[in-house]
UniProtKB/TrEMBL annotation:
Gene name linked to the record: atpH
Protein name: ATP synthase subunit delta
Domain of life: Bacteria
Function of the molecule: This protein is part of the stalk that links CF(0) to CF(1). It either transmits conformational changes from CF(0) to CF(1) or is implicated in proton conduction.
Organism: Roseburia intestinalis
Keyword Secreted: no
Cellular localization per UniProt: Cell membrane; Membrane
Length: 188
């Protein structure tokens, strides 16, 4: 259900952004609203409280956001509240932001390495990703996991490239255990 809600409202906002030529403006507003909700968990709790009537919640949304974001975006938030889907607003905004990135060919890459990468190494990784994918730009997220021993793991969407030493050692151990099983089978 959450995916359907996210897709329905996210696609609607995307269409409005596309038709009005305001893709960047709406993306920036989505990022700002998402940040405001994440920074103010009390607001999210208030907007999700079952004893507060929808009309009051709509007024709260209008009071907070009317002067800060476009009328179209306030209208979307108002509609989400009126339909009782405010608990899913974060996933709606995330879906919309992902649609904009995909439309603009901006990828999101998560790179985990065994050691901190230098700026030159980070630039080389990003350059290689740009050469080997359809994307024209990347939002890069780096993390360190010493358990990888060496190498790195790169995740873009549902694709994973794992060149870590840990994985290579695990693969080698699996292959060796298969060889031992075959040798044991012959001995019987």
């Amino acid at each position: 259900m959450a995916k359907l809600v996210s897709k329905t409202y996210g696609d609607a906002l995307f269409e409005v952004a596309l038709e009005s030529g305001r893709m960047d403006e709406f993306r920036d507003e989505a990022v700002a609203v998402k940040a405001a909700l994440n920074e103010n968990p009390e607001l999210f709790k208030l907007m999700s409280h079952p004893k507060i009537v929808k009309e009051e919640k709509v007024k709260i949304v209008e009071d907070i956001f009317a002067e800060k974001i476009s009328a179209e975006f306030v209208g979307l938030l108002r509609l989400i509240v009126e339909k009782g889907h405010f608990a899913k607003v974060d996933t709606v905004l995330e879906y919309f932001i992902d649609c904009v990135k995909e439309y603009k060919n901006i990828g999101t890459a998560y790179v985990t390495s065994a050691m901190e990468l230098s700026e030159a190494q980070k630039e080389a990784v990003e350059k290689r990703l740009l050469e080997t994918t359809k994307y024209v730009k990347f939002e890069m997220h780096y993390a360190v996991d010493s358990a990888l021993i060496g190498g790195m793991v790169i995740r873009i969407g549902d694709r994973v490239v794992d060149s870590s030493v840990r994985t290579k050692l695990n693969d080698l151990a699996r292959e060796l255990s298969k060889i031992q099983l075959k040798a044991g089978e012959c001995a019987s």
